[in-house]
Amino acid sequence: MAEFGFNEHHQNEVINYMRFARSKRVLRLKTIDSCFQDLKDSRLVEETFTVDEVTEMLEGLQVVVRGEVETELINTAHTNVLLLRQLFSQAEKFYLKLQTDVSELENRELLEQVAEFEKTEFQTTGTKANPESNKPKLAPLNEGGVSELLNKEIARLQEENDRLRARLRTLESQATSALDEKSKAEKALQDLQKIQGDQQPPVQLADVSGLEDTVTALKADLEKSLSTSAASQKDLQDNLVTAKHDLLRVQEQLSLAEKELEKKFQQTAAYRNMKEILTKKNEQIKDLRKRVNKYEPDE
Fold first, then answer.
1. Predicted TM-score of the model (pTM)
2. pLDDT tens string 173-216
3. How far is CA 27 from CA 80, 82, 92, 261, in A?
4. How distant, in Å, are the alpha carbons of 112, 264, 278 from that of 198?
């Protein structure tokens, strides 16, 4: 069957079907032969027959043979429909649409090739053993468009998996860098606190934090008082003015402390880290000042 382009598996399936059709054909031919034999045994018992008797026997035989042939043709057509049903069902599982060309069923050249193949296949043993005859169903289609679609889907999933892996590595790297930066910042803060404890600068970072908390509390009280009572607004504004002066004083003290620390610790390893932290604190104080100014006009 090489001329039909079949692989070994499909060739074996064709052989199975031809063996099935061959057995049905042989059985039907035996049935037709028995019809003639029954006629011989039951009617041809005399030596002479009239024309009417011969005509009657032939007409009866014609009816019987016609019925047998018609039954076989109908059964063959229905059997072929069941075979197509199996093929189409398997194709639909892979979202394929098979097409048939009925005109090819009358292609004399192809029919002769099939006849030659059947003759070659069955002339020696009649019923050659088939290694795959015990399989209950046709194997799923593995070639053509299905394989291409599956390969594309596998490639797409692999590419997406590679992207996810690369993204994961990036996130892990970023997390590691963040942890390193956090560790460095904590170490720098500890060094700064140790140095400040040894030198006892005039302003402690804890004081700044306390002032920030105070300003936050005053702001919350101001917002609450503005919504509930206008009478206490003046007191809150006075407190805010005081807090503003305190912040200014703290800012001046921080500036002096920064200068002193720069002179004392320029040669130390924590110098740069301390300067950066103090600068950030100054920016926070400036931000707090701006927020306070929102509730108090400039004098």
1. 0.40
2. 888 888 888 888 888 888 877 876 665 544 455 555 665 676 67
3. 18, 20, 35, 113
4. 109, 12, 17
Report pLDDT digits (tens) over 273-298: 777 888 888 888 888 888 888 776 55
Under the banding of pLDDT at 50, 70 and 90, the label for residue 238 is confident
Identify which of 34, 32, 53 has the alpha carbon closest to the alpha carbon of residue 44: 53
**Which amino acid does the sequence have at 160?**
E
Q: In this structure, are residues 98 and 91 in contact, taking their beta carbons and an 8 Å threshold? A: yes
pLDDT tops 70 at residue 163? yes
Q: What is the pLDDT of residue 67?
A: 92
| pLDDT for the residue numbered 229 | 56
Tokens of 138: 């046709």
What's the angle, vertex CA 161, arms to CA 159 and CA 164, rounded to 5? 115
Amino acid at 89: S
Q: Are residues 146 and 94 in contact, defined by beta-carbon separation less than 8 angstroms?
A: yes
Contacts of 15 (CB under 8 A, 6+ apart): 121, 128, 130
Tokens for 3?
A: 């001329």
User: Token pair 């394989």 is at which residue?
Assistant: 147
Using an 8 Å Cβ cutoff, are 53 and 5 in contact?
A: no
Q: Give 88-126 pLDDT, tens digit per residue.
A: 999 888 888 888 888 888 888 888 888 888 888 877 545
Q: Is 99 exposed, middle or buried (0-12, 13-18, 19+ CB in 10 A)?
A: exposed
Task: State the distance between the two ends of the chain, measured CA to CA, in whole angstroms.
Answer: 105
d(CA 62, CA 38): 13
The b-or-e profile of 117-154 (16+ CB within 10 A means b, else e) is bbeebeeeeeeeeeeeeeeeebeebeeeebeeeeeeee
Task: Give the count of alpha carbons within 13 A of 210, CB side only.
Answer: 7
